[in-house]
Amino acid sequence: MTHPNLETLPAEGTVIDNWLEAGWADRELRADVSVGLSSSPKELPPKWFYDDRGSELFDQITRLDEYYPTRREREILEREAHAIVAASGADCLVELGSGTSTKTRILLDAFAAVGQLSRYVPFDNSEATLRNAASELAEAYPGLRVHGVVGDFEHHLRHLPLEEPERLGDPSPRPPAMVMLLGGTIGNFAPAHRPAFLNAVAASMQTGDTFLLGTDLVKESDRLVAAYDDAAGVTAQFNLNVLSVLNRCFGADFDLDAFKHEAVFDAANEWIEMRLCATRDQRVHIPALEMAVDFAAGERMRTEISAKFRPEGVRAELGAAGLVTQRMWTDADGDYALTLARRVRRD
User: pTM higher than 0.85, yes or no?
Assistant: First the structure.
């Protein structure tokens, strides 16, 4: 059996499990680029947006007038945090894709107010980000035990430490946990891949645990497109930056001026699709992968989908994974939803 690289941080009661093998990011990026740039149409997965520069640009995006999801999600959390805490009954909070855990503090404050939470489990693929956030939270919330997990959504959800070590072997049910995925991240999964992800989340839970899911809702296409194609061009820089990642990591010779950012709403699939469109015929060399990739003028490479949801669809997808919706909250304008679903026994 494979075991994590487990390290104790300076903050008392804080532990990090690292399930990512050395060189994981390089191997994953190599595989994604080799397959994606050999496909027709070409595509790259959005997880490679987030190098240091990409993360900085995305932080700018979240503060743009056009980009409403972050503000709407925070509005719901600030208004409903105490209701979410009460409905969950959770003793342990697990956050998938935790990042800097900034919005998490709204819920942690609500848990702290009722003395209900004992453990926080952030899960992220960036060890440095997780390590810093975990240490800060352990110090900000005295008595809170933080057990961070460095891993990948596709492979390591089964390692979520929902069971406390001191309870192993105890046949009695543990206190309930709440797993959450915020930021509309579920929308980056293709519809065909969402069931496997939700089933994996449900499999990591026990009956009575809850799942809090953030989803952007379907709305007017012009507002959706504007959120991903802002007037200041910040999202365009963010999209093009993925080419800089390939240039830096693999010695590629992408000319960023030879591509332009596009964001379109696919009404049939109800998702925003971000693309990079080649502005001229060109051949790109990627020495580290021994690849030469041709782009025709006008050829488009997909870099992200961001699915938008309808409430009935959210309930149905969660239900198919054995997660029964208990409550759904939206912002005042009905742009965004937080859904709390409970894990039920599946025969």
Answer: yes
